[in-house]
Structures
1.
Amino acid sequence: MSQLAVEAAVTSSTTDEQFVDVLHQSSLLQRGLTILYRTTQWLTMLLVAAAGSVSALAQQPARLVMSPVPIWNDTAPPTEPGAFFDPGQNQLVIMVPKPDETNAVPVRYDIPNAARASVDVTVQSLPGKLRFTYTLTDEPLARQPSKRFRLLLPSHDAGLTSSSNGWQFETEATALPDRSATVRGGTMRFISWRNPGTTDAKASRVILTIDSTYLPGFADTFLEGQVKNPLTADIVATLPGAIAQAARQFLEPAFGSTPQTVLAPMFPPDVSKSVIAANYHFGISVLQRGGRIRQDSAYARQLLDNLQAFLTAITPLAAPTLPTTAPTTALEQTIQQALSFCFK
Amino acid sequence: MLQRILPIMLRSLGAFFASVATLAAQSYSPMYNPQSTNAQSWVCIDQYGQRIPYAYFYFYTGTYLNTNAHFHDDPSHPWSSATCTTTSSYQCLSATDVYAGPDGVFSLQINTTLIGQAEVLVITCSSGGGSVSGALNYAVGYNDLVYNDDPNVYVKIGGTDTGANTGHGSTAYNRYMQNTPSWQIWYATLDYLAAHPEISKVCLNDQALQYGGKFDSCALGGCPNPPYPNPVRPWISPHESHDRGTAADVAGIGSGQCANYGGSGVNVAEFIDRCVDHGAVRANSISEGNHAHCQFGDINAWPH
């Protein structure tokens, strides 16, 4: 499966429709020229590929990899100092300058962003609190088994408790601002569960739970895979300035792990409904963008319309109107239930 | 233009979105600074784990509506552009489509605007056998602005809940500041209140939006005309001095909005003096008629 900040799945063969989309901004003449130009380019590329390897013709795109630093080239390795990402090994390659000014030498660190897991969420009402249950299962083709699952949540949820079937619970303070509540100087914290095992066994139906009085909203999660030689802040601190700056990007959650969005305890019960509504509008838009909610979902469309109307009302409304269209998928049903907790 | 409007409308593109994108509900990571250039390298991998030489890519950017408290929209809504670069690419056919090099890699840069918001880069790789798409969610803004309110000394004004709709929601959204300035104005307030025992709370108005960036307080109108030829001014100044979370406005004597919600207007000149006592920049801390504008940062230190 995919790496870094991008997950992708193979779509059907390239269609004319997709090219038309690219050409929307062109005039008819430009379109004709562009198509002709592209055809020529394609033929050139195909000839190059055919000359190089017959098997290359059978190559089909399977995944995209993005890197904030240059990508390592195995056939023509860089010799100058710098930081590179090797997508084949999923490693950051640091070309360390040598004092004697001979060629720099590569030092490799594993980046734990190749874990992929499905995370199913349920939100259950218990007396005086809500229970959030996450069921984590590694995808069969994930290139790293899950090692740590982190949720970015408001640090002021002092009553939050957690349990799991074997994974160790941890918390970690951050300086990231809390945008989910009106708490002076509020910051976020990571709550996380770490797989205590050291084998390469994939995670299967790991149950992680949180109990909280906070209301559900969409939160960032970051999944880290198990690796042998991870890049750490201590290592980055030893690197020369420009290289350290480049390498440090892989300590960022978005590049050093696999982001996802899930429902989690985000809002104190007294928080503004508009803060909640904005969070849901964004979260659902992102889920749609990522294909986890269908683009043509009538439920999502109505919900987004209702949230939009609430957020942009000239005269403030008491609360958003919940959709009258029934949710049709398990995820939509969970969202509907979460909304009912927030806006009851 | 239409290509850029499509994502904002979140219209269905059919199979194009059969891919799974990354997700970030609060847009904390990555967050790119406003008006910055951010390099990326991309590579398309085949079903055998091999790079695809000379793969064809095309891409575009979009924005998520209603993020960073921009509860307004119009056709002039700006967001970042992504542009092909030749650092790694074999050939940039245009700004937004490209052939990768023989190592399968192409490069682009995301050029952010002054607008803080959540955005997305959508990218598709094609080769003879098919295509694959993905998306990178990111945000534009600053990750160091915290909520700043103390109900013991402040009354919040300037939002829909106090009758002022600037297109940025309630008073919960216009009060994010960097940590140090948030304390500086708090101490200035304490000093002012100590000198004026007849009042107990001042009215704090615009600080910055959650991610910072352009606080287009005239997005729906409300700006004087003149000096502004168009009182409706979305996505642009005034208020550039509120882009970085180093400034706040304090209502002066006579503010109806302040009085209506239980606060007391301040003597503007005197309050500015108290701000300067606690680190505000004198030259940039000014009377703006009905309020004191206290600026605790060098306004040339960030793009605006």
Note: Residues 179-195 of chain B form the longest helix (17 residues).
2.
Amino acid sequence: MHRFANPARFAQLAAAATPWGVALTALLFVAGLALALFASPPDYQQGETVRIMYVHVPAAWMAMFVYVVVAAGSASALVWRHPLGDVIARAASPIGACFTLMALLTGSLWGKPIWGTWWVWDARLTSVLVLFFLYLGHIALLHAFDEPSRGARAAAILALAGIVNLPIIKFSVDWWNTLHQPASISRLERPAIDPSILAPLLVMAGAYFAYFVTLLMVRVRTELASAKLRAFRAALAAQG
Amino acid sequence: MSGILRFLEMGGHGGFVWGAYAAVALVLLVLGLISWLDLKRSEGELKRMEARLPGRSRPVGARNRA
């Protein structure tokens, strides 16, 4: 496993795996959308608007999961100075920001017909908005310094400090009285969702995950190529 | 025809449902496209740079790190 942590070897492996990732992502999206739009029944209370759940919930899950990836990459770069840690955090952060934006947009489009409002400042929605700002702050810090390593260090510290927001998002619906519903899927209990609705949800979650892994490989390759270019330019500048 | 229209109507909430799917598709496609174009641009630039400096797969003074 450790040998794949070598940046050059990782780039090689990622280049070979990317077409497979694209194919798997497309396949899962086609299956997920077919199940979500055609096979699953309308909800007895929410009617057809329940179909928004199939794009909203996986986006929210991925928004939090990607943040864990960003924080883990940041920790490995800060503590062990692993070169891939920074690269992974840098590559994953915009993907996480997009998943969070998707969760916020689709949540708003779901909230209007169900709650009667586009937005409320309840604990779940606000903590997800904070997550979005954390991602934006992370991306801004990465680009705020002329010396990339200084930006990466500042961004890594922010990513690690921001991890405290994840349990707040997860448990906000239990700790506070929120308009947002509590979790319907738990690791410890049987899901409170009918299998006809759970199946498309899980397939769409798989599609989002495959999309993330594939895009992460593409972006890591870009970051590695950019780092090599920076080193080339620095060497050329040093030669005069 | 009426079946398709009923499907598109989504019980009177078509704007919300299709709006959510369109927003997701737009974000995923734009991010994917930008990332792919960035990769092609960086790799192309790297190839041109390596061609300018033949015989060097790694820049002078660069260690084996990203």
Note: Chain B has two helices and no strands.
3.
Amino acid sequence: MLRYLRLHRIFISQYLKRLMEYKTDFLLGAIGLLIAQALGVLFLNIIFSAIPALEGYTFEEVLFIYGFSLIPKSLDHLFFDNLWMVGYSIIRKGDFDKYLTRPINSLYYVIVERFCVDAFGEMLTCVLLLIYSVPKLSLPFYWYTIPLLLVVIVFATMIYTSLKIITSAISFWTKASGHITHMLYMTNDFAKYPVTIYNKAVQAVITYVIPFAFTAYFPASYFLTGRDPLFCIGGTVVAGTALFLLAVFVWNRGLKAYESAGS
Amino acid sequence: MENMIYVENLRKEFKKIIKEPGLKGSFKALFKPHREIVTAVDGISFEVRKGEILGFIGPNGAGKSTVIKMLTGILTPTSGVCRINGKIPQDDRKNYVREIGVVFGQRTQLWWDLALRETYAVLKEIYEVPDDRYHQRMAFLNEVLELDSFITSPVRTLSLGQRMRADIAASLLHSPKVLFLDEPTIGLDVVVKENIRSAIRKINEEEGTTVILTTHDLSDIELLCERIVMIDKGRKVFDGGLSKLKGEFGQMRTFSFELQNAEDIRKLGYHDHFKLSDDDLSLSVSGKSVSVKFNTDKVKVEDIISYTLSSVHIKDMEIRDVEIEEIIKRLYKREVSV
């Protein structure tokens, strides 16, 4: 475990060195990112100024849920972004061979190889939204609120990452699955708003099938109201654990089906 | 001597979707796929002794890479067994790969965007090589593969020859017991090839590393390998030393000589005189030099010589054994069966 953390640090530093290697690209990328995020915040402002309240949620509460949804999303984006490449090209081109000739877990290796600094944009938006909304809400606060928050963040991130692992692993059989990952990933947009605004079918899907509701709305509503911790927090833990176990299972089955590419 | 590698009845099948040509065919295959099973490796068995350099050859598409990928734990065999140093690669891949080094000549394993030494620093961590061992090892690899002049350059700026040396060094950093080299001399010039061959020989001699080498360059085989395994269409067609190969298939000899008068060539009619086809006798002429390649099963050496001497005046003459390349070319073309 310690060895893996140490390796993770090394991979991140390698990645940062790589970014610095191409200075112009790095600078332009950083500027582009800032512009994109500023526009994103501006756009949110427009939406929320048109809809001050939703289904009994105040403007600040909606902002809080939206901001909360970005915590696991940006963490997953920051640390586990390379999974996209698995479905789009790594397996199809046979580049996965490289990960299999090293004495480390292949899933771990492929995940830590890239570190996605783009995620800092989402983090910035997230922090701005929370800084704006939290002081205006009277959130219930106990001694266990912070530890509980940390637990929720870990398991909510696991929901994101596990879904990406499962959909990427499909390409061990189909050679490419990037679009499947993309399709599934896009449904996370539903999780940014209170699920009660959707019809029953959509609610059921994002709660029980692709449980993105547990990455944002349910835990956030617990922190807003202090109600129903068993379902809101427990649900996140259960969904995160179950999906992660499924992800590891699918991945390991996929490894056996890996066919490489001709050379 | 004990066996390092033990392969028995190894098979690998791939499912393949057969498509009719064009966009229309692709659409059709999307809805009504026509699946076919392709056997890439069809029951191969062989053994490799500890410290041996084995040449693993065969024409393109014979299944060489597929075998190497099963031996290195990348692919899972459909059936059959491979055991390397007593371990089955697929059983405990993570521990198994600590004992092997792998180089795929067509694909680098170096960190493309960073200085070469960064790659070694990361590999040191991945393989948990202790500091003192690492320095010692780097000094050795430096000496053998001459990495010094480019170790601080980003990998993307290296020439192919430098990159290949760097890749081989990367595969040896953790002192593997077995080294798999898949076309390590592909696309390299003669000098670099020689450099890489001597490095392989040195590592094999000094550390007793078992080496499996696939190549299309038969000089690699002649200069490095005591033994070759040849496969074709997923099956083994030859297993043995070079001398055995020559003994079994080396009925061909080459008789070369120089004519005193270039026009005399018209006086020589080997095919008609001996009634042989092109397969059993072939002639190549450039100016005054002539070489006749013939099958000693069909015609005796002395008959060829006496016919030549009685027909024309010659200067130099020489009789050579067939080159390994010629035998292998014939095997690939399936002119010789085993």
Note: The mean pLDDT of chain A is 89.
4.
Amino acid sequence: MPILILIVMAIGFAVVNTVATHLLGPGRGGQAKESTYESGMNPFGSARRRFNVRFYILAMTFLVFDVEIIFLYPWAVTYTKMDPGSAEAMLYLGRILFFIGTSVIAYIYAWRKGVFRWD
Amino acid sequence: MADRLLLLLPELVLFAGAVLVAVAGLSPRREIRRALPGITAGFLLVAMAAVAFVHSGERAAVAAVLTPMPALTGWVRLATCGIAALLSLLTVGTIDRRLEADVQAGRLDFNPLMAGRGEFHAFFLLSIIGLLLCTSATDLIWLFVALELTSLPTYVMVAMSRPSRRAQEAAMKYFFLGALSAAIFLYGFALLYGATGTLIFSEMSAAFAAQRAGDGIPLVANVGLVLAIVGIGYKIAAVPMHFYAADVYEGAAAPVTAFLGYVPKAAGAVAMLIVLGAVGWEGGLPEPVLTTLWMSAVLTMTLGNIGALLQKSVKRMLAYSSIAHSGYLLIGIIAGPGLGITAVILYLVAYGVMNTGAFAVLASLERRGREIEDVEDLAGLRHRHPALAVALALCAGSLLGFPPLLGFVGKLYLFIAGVEAGQVLLVVIGAINSAISAWYYLILVGVPILGAPTARSETVDAVPSRWPRVAAVLAAVLVVLLPIVAARLAPRIDAGTAVRAAPDPASAAAARR
């Protein structure tokens, strides 16, 4: 029974909010507001254009390094607080070097595969 | 930490191999690309030596502390590296065959973007690493990641195995159903975590022991275990998660089918043993779990064998036979410690060898560059390729469980384990199923040896590469010779099958680092 009440409340909350926004919102339109959001750039052309598959491969390569940075930041913050000579610090250093090593291999692989060749 | 790294030495060796192979596959030099299966096999043999090194002398005791069931970590890893080395011989010349032929004839410049051989062998090794990691899983997260590492590369391998729409369809089916199964057993794992409050198997078994002593194992834990078993059942193609097997096995090229027959199956069996080890067989498995396993074993054996009877395609027949063999494996998994786990390990090894042998024969034969399909294509194989015909007959006889071949030894241990565990009815059903399976295995023995060549089978030729044939002959030799070794190995495997009780907190903490 409490679950049923929760379900009704959850659905009701969503419905009420959506309806209320429609009824109460001022609803001012305009060309700038109704155009597609492209991270601040002015949109041009159709969104259904085809891209060369190279863009996607390059984007995936970018992701490898993007994710690497995400891991490097917290690592760098913790590592500076450690005693550089201690065994634990060496372990942490070894782990991150291994991690960087794997992405370097990924880079070599992508380079050999010809991802960066643009002719 | 250092102990743990030493234990994972074989995996690290294979990882280095996977990286090397992936990059070397893009080399513009043809000799390097040709050597890839050999390099893969080489790394697998080094990893085999590393397993032997890690589990010998004083290091064996250290390894035993860090793993849930020492016998699994030692013997399954050793056997897997060996069987995988055999499997890598099958792949020679299959991947990128058309591309390499075009490059060699000068019709095409070598373009790394189009080559897939390096990636294929890298995925091959990564999947093996997943299986090896499964054997030493100490917690649910590790087990899940290892299981997925085993499975994910196989989806790509199926799609890459041959340039046909059927391979891609098979890969699609395999991937989506695999994702479904992963969701099911992951939900089971989540419920197990909820029921015991821990992810670590040793602590989990302590929690289960406390629950058994108290009010009994709660419903949540039972549901979790059943979901985990059903989900992992996908990996071993056990009912109710068996339906993909025939289509996927048929769609993939024969070397990849051989791979699918052993690697995911071994990973699934190992994972089931480890998960059930957390509950413990002592005092009986919980009633719902036992019922699920029992029903699954009976249905898997029966449906597998009856399905195989109806097939004309050799690969579909072997796919259903693979389902049936999972049913036999489940007898050992139900029986548990004592002989059960030993029997499962021995059976995995036996099945790996004979399955690889049977598919090696299929991988060695072709008609105008396409794989053979029907049993008829094998008629009178003895006249044209006597070694292949004998190898197929030996492997099929072994799959049937014909004494004194390897499959007989494996089945014998499973059935003895079943009887000792009090599952007489299950063993009787297993024996009846073995008798049913004789029908279609004897076709595989009889047609190549006794059958007369037909106009259709005259057009079947051996593939250009000799390595699949070498693998078939090697597997046939092992099928004959390994039974002699198996009897001596069994007690040694048995010594390592005890499920480790909860360790003292200090060493558990050390193991977690």
Note: Chain B has 24 helices and three strands.
